[in-house]
Design a protein that fits this description.
With 308 residues, this protein is α+β, with helices and mostly antiparallel strands. It has helices at 2-10, 18-25, 29-41, 83-92, 140-158, 216-220, 226-241, 247-256; strands spanning 45-49, 52-57, 74-77, 100-103, 124-130, 162-165, 169-172, 175-186, 191-200, 263-268, 271-280, 286-289, 295-298, 302-305. The protein has 3 domains: 2-57, Winged helix-like DNA-binding domain superfamily/Winged helix DNA-binding domain (Arc Repressor Mutant, subunit A), CATH 1.10.10.10; 64-256, Bira Bifunctional Protein, Domain 2 (BirA Bifunctional Protein, domain 2); 263-305, SH3 type barrels (Roll), CATH 2.30.30. Strands 3-4-5-9-8-7-6 form a 7-stranded mixed beta sheet, with helices on both faces. The protein has a 5-stranded antiparallel beta sheet with strand order 13-12-11-10-14, with no helix packed on it. The chain has a two-stranded antiparallel ribbon with strand order 1-2. The structure holds biotin (BTN).
Length: 308
């Protein structure tokens, strides 16, 4: 209901009377007043006068009712350990495809390879529960899909060129702006769920000495609207979900790739592999060409770009 009230107030630049709101939404004026009071508590500035209500400003929080079409599927936390844990619990209990866990900050955010993912307020942290009907071998394509969607959103909303580092980092001018972590629950040939966790350095500031990381705010020189960004990103992801097994997805990733054609060093399952990244295969694995011309497929690992 709060979402619908906000929508109605936003459609109107002038005051909207409690009576009109109550007629439009089919609830009593007292209920309207209670919802308005609760919105004010959330940080919305709403002027009340004898002529009605007027929305003056909104906080840039990722509150569920800021995403009216998705509100029912969103689990929102001002702070949480990790959205991955909450999403796993929900998915285990049968949460439907498209369930989203969003947090304003995480105290135990985690990255790939058991690394910590610093998650102060100002970033965008969420995990999406997906239930793709694909063989588990193709699950890494979900990471590719998510990273392509993030890059497309950065281009669309910020006008910045984002590139992709295999397997699923999003970079701006060679610095990491977004990381993606997928956790799968599967049987031999059936995926039960894949939880895709996306962390974006949005309105956070990166220390000057940090040369490998950036944020959208630092790259743009101004803050962005995180809710607009997340809304647009969820649309980009949804659009690409249908293309998950299409060749177009791989083509899109290749076009945005900062890894292809580079010499790379990959720590993969305790082994160091060096070669030129020449392609990815249908499962999202990286194909490397060694100095002797031999080809090698790398499924997982931490990739370092050496030189062009
Ligand atoms: C990486 O690059 O290592 C992956 C980082 C993934 C971070 C996101 S933030 C939302 C979700 N919750 C977590 O604890 N991790 C992922």
């Amino acid at each position: 209901m709060k979402g619908q009230i906000l929508k109605a107030l936003r459609e109107r630049s002038d005051y909207l009377s409690g009576e009109t709101l109550s007629e439009q939404l089919g609830i009593s004026r007292v209920s309207i007043w209670k919802h308005i009071r609760s919105l004010k508590k959330d940080g919305y500035v709403i002027e009340a006068s004898p002529r009605g209500y007027r929305l003056v400003s909104s906080p840039d929080l990722l509150l569920p009712y800021e995403f009216p079409d998705l509100e029912q599927r969103i689990h929102y936390f001002p702070e949480i350990g990790s959205t991955m844990d909450a999403a796993r619990e929900l998915a285990k209990k049968g949460a439907e495809e498209g369930t989203i866990v969003i947090a304003e900050a995480q105290t135990h955010g985690r990255g790939r390879l058991s690394r910590e993912w610093l998650s102060p307020e100002g970033g965008i942290y969420f995990t999406l529960v997906l239930r793709p009907r694909i063989s588990p071998a193709y699950a890494p394509r979900i990471n590719l899909m998510a990273s392509v969607a993030v890059a497309a959103t950065i281009k669309k909303l910020c006008g910045l060129k984002a590139e992709l580092k295999w397997p699923n980092d999003v970079l701006i001018e060679g610095r990491k702006v977004c990381g993606i972590l997928a956790e799968m629950d599967a049987e031999t040939d059936v995926v039960n769920f894949v939880n895709v966790g996306i962390g974006i350095n949005a309105n956070t500031s990166v220390p000057q000495f940090e040369k490998t990381v950036t944020s959208l705010k630092d790259a743009l020189g101004r803050e962005i609207s995180r809710k607009e960004f997340l809304s647009a990103l969820l649309v980009e992801i949804e659009r690409r979900q249908a293309l998950l097994m299409e060749a177009d997805l791989l083509e899109e990733w290749k076009k945005l790739s900062a890894t292809l054609n580079k010499d790379v060093r990959i720590m993969s399952l305790g082994e160091e592999v060096i070669g030129q990244a020449i392609d990815i295969d249908a499962t999202g694995a990286l194909i490397l060409k060694g100095q002797d011309g031999s080809l090698r497929t790398v499924l997982v690992g931490d990739c370092i770009h050496l030189r062009e």
